[in-house]
Structures are given as C-alpha cells and as structure tokens.
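Homework-ish question, so no full write-ups if that breaks the rules, but can someone show me the predicted structure for this set?
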Amino acid sequence: MICQECNQRPATLHFTKIVNGEKTEIHLCEQCAHEKGEMFMFPHQGAFSINNLIAGLLNMDASLKEQKAPSFHNEHVLQCERCKMTYAQFVKVGRFGCANCYETFRSHLPPIFRKLHGGHVAHEGKIPKRVGGTLYVRKQIGQLKQMLQELIAKEQFEKAAEVRDQIRELEAKLNTEGGASLYE
Amino acid sequence: MNEHLFFQRALSPWMNEEGPDSDIVLSSRIRLARNMKRYSFPTVFTNEEAIQIVQLFEQLFSQKQFGDLGPFVLLKMNELQAIEKRVLVEKHLISPHLAEDCTFGACLLSEQEEASIMINEEDHIRIQCLFAGFQLKEALKMANALDDWIEQHIDYAFDEKYGYLTSCPTNVGTGLRASVMMHLPGLVLTQQMNQIIPAINQLGLVVRGTYGEGSEALGNIFQISNQITLGKSEEDIVEDLTGVVRQLIEQERMAREALVKTSNIQLEDRVYRSYGVLTNSRIIGSKEAAQCLSDVRLGIDLGYITNVPKTILTELMILTQPGFLQKYAGGALRPQERDVRRASLIRERLYQWK
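A: Not a homework solution, just the prediction itself:
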C-alpha cells in the first residue's frame, strides 16, 4: 500500500478514525505521519531506535550467549538485590535499574562499555567531592605532583615548596584518618 | 517571577545575546546526567520514590539564588497542559521523553532559561546549560557549578571505576553530552554535507538535524554532539568537539565565500525569493518555512538583507512549531489550519522589520 499523503513511499502506519460513528481509514508512511503530527504528540522514534540498538548490542555479545545456554541457573542468580532487575531484563531494556545493578552485573560490563565508548572501560573525568571521597583527594594529589614537576623544571622553587606542602597536607589526611574526615 | 513567560516567549532571553561565531553556531549546550545513590533509577522506581525526589528538589531550590542565574522555578509535568509541555520541548528546555512519559517528572528553570534541570527523566537529574553562539566551555563551567552545588546536598551514584552511574550505559562515566547547533547552508548548497557527516561520525561524534527527526535537517540546522562519555575527561570531550566545530566553521565560511564569488546573483535571487515567500504567503508548511528562513538568515549573514535581525531564524523556527502555533491559536489546530496560521505569524513578525 502506498502512502495516501505523498503517494510515493509505502504506507507503514495505518489508523482507523471513528468520529460520530463515521469510520475513516488512514494509511501513511512514517514521514508523512510525522509531518501531519495529529496522531502523535511528538515524533518519538529516537528513543525507540536507541533502545533497540543497545539491546541488540547486548544480545550480540558472544560471551553472553554462551552463558545463556549452559547455565540457566546463573541467569537466575544474576539479579540485582536492590531493585530486583535481572540481567536478562537489563539486556532487554538496555537500562540499569539502580546504582547497585552496576555492582551485580560488573563482570559483564567491560565488553559492553568497550563497544559503546570506543574501547574505553574506565572513567577519567570529574570526581564528586563528597561521594568521591579519597579518590577525589588522590586525584588532587596526582595533579599537584604534576604541577610540582613543572615548577621544578621551570626552577620556580618558592612556588614548588608551597605545592609540596599542599601535597604533604593532603597525604597526611589520607594516611592518618584513612580518608574518613574527607567524607564530611 | 511570572512562569507564564516560559510558555509565551519563543526566544529564550539568552538567545538574544550574540555569542562568538554566531553567524554559524546558533547555540552551545552541555548536559550532565546524574543519579542519586539511594533511589532506584527512573526506569524502575516507584511513584512514591519519584514524588519524594521532586519534593527534595523543590525544597533544595526554594528561595535559593544562584548568582547571575537568579532563582529557579519548578514546573511539575503533571500540573502542565499538553500544549505547555510541548512549548517547552520546542524551546529545547525539556526533552520529549520528560514531557510525554514522565508523569512524576519536573524541571527547574532559571529566569533567563539558560539553565534547566530535569528531574526524573531517564536519570534522576539532568543538568542542562545553554549559551548563545559557540561557548561550550562557558556552558561546561556553569553546568559544573550547578553540579557541585547539588552534590553538596545529595549523594550521587558514583563508582570509582565507572564514574557517574547512569540509567543508560551510553551515558556512564562523565554523563556529559556536549552539543552545538549549527546553521550550515553553505555546506548543504555546495553538497558537501553528505561527505562530512560520515567523516564526523568516525570521530565518535554524532551529526543530526535539529528539527525534523531522522536524516533530514530542516532549515539547514545541524546538531553535533559527542557520543563517548566514558574514558575521557569532560575537558577533553569538549576540546575534541570544539576542534571539529572549528573546522566546520572554517569549511562553512569557505563555502559561503565560494558561493558569493561564483554565483552571487543567483544567491541573492534565492535569498530575496525566500524573503518574498515568507512575507507574502498565505499557506506555508514547516518544511518550506524552514528552508526560506534558512535562506533569509544566510542573506542577513552575507549582508543582502539588513533590516531583519539575525535571531529571526531561531525565533521563527521555534515559533512555527505545532506547539507554539496552537498556543497562540488558543487551542488544537488541524495540519491545514496550522499552515495558514504559520504563514500569518511569519508575515506579522517580518512586517515589524519592514
């Protein structure tokens, strides 16, 4: 069937409208349906296709397939304790249920992330000050140490001494209190 | 403040500012996705959890001033009319997903509409900052400041290895989506876009039309954004995108120069024909309107047209979307009625500058 609007593309969406008992059938291609817009609040296909793509990607993963067939139990075991999402559900919807899902499915994640993020599997960016805790301080120390090297290379020893003191202070915090005070 | 303004004005106040490279880059946007540790993500959370989260943000942001941003206004999705939600979507202040599917969704908007925080969309928190012209770094700075402030009060879901944990695995890590909206009529007219898009895709960036989903870019407006969120720092992501955008700006300027040099009269003819259509037509579809608006905007950038302000493209692109048209009409319109309404609205708006 050809779209009744553009008379070019095949009609993929079929509607039946009943107004005051009068029945009209409408056959449109996706594009014209979007342009007409009366059937949909918003053209929303983006969400669908992304969902499907991710699910497809997860399903394609050979290691997952192997796992599925022989170890039926394993899949049962692999369920997030907190939100009750199973690994199978995650694969189907392509969305995590909660922060704990990342913990539960941890061993399966690297190949997925590698595919989605151009080979990367670990975060390199911002660290939240409070929740990041010691990690935030460790990163700060790393940056300061780099700065120290640069200052020494430029023979700016006074500034370098200041930076060195800052590093010592942060390291002391990490060591003596196990970073506990950093969570405050 | 009067929250009706959010639904009445098509141009967000920040759009009136002329940003750097604004002849080509219409706007820059940064979005950060964040979640809370103690609640399930919106995909599976209960209604009670959702309501609690909105209440939490309502308290957190009530009577708080954010420097230049001023106070934020909280809008709950289940208290808005369908047309109002649609208007916010057309202004890119909220996503279609929040408007349509998130019953317990909400958004916090700054007075000038340059910052918007969506609550309970795909993630608990989505911070969005918009700047005129090419100002990705400035937008990142503002988004980071809001993020830091929220983090003082809320425990984020964060993992040492995977960074900020998001509902969708495509956002994990930085949770950062940086994007620029570009008007590229020169590259489209010289038929270079078809080669450029695949090349950009290979760099881990995405190009798509801003209006009119799918492959087609209405009004020659393209959105370019990063795909990868894990394994690169926020600054690197912005830097990489900036590099590509810089090149595109160069290419577009060269294409425009070449067009002026080789077919000046044809180009001028095209611009004025489009101006004629916009100022005279009685029925106009969104596709034709977008093309004509793009031509007129190009005509302004090239100096053919001097009496119309630059913002006309952005403003009328937004104003002639179905939501705004119906808002102005005061009710639902059938597609044919919309085309009539669109034509008269454009005529009225352009008449101001005659």
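Now go work out the reasoning yourself. Hint: Chain B has twelve helices and ten strands.
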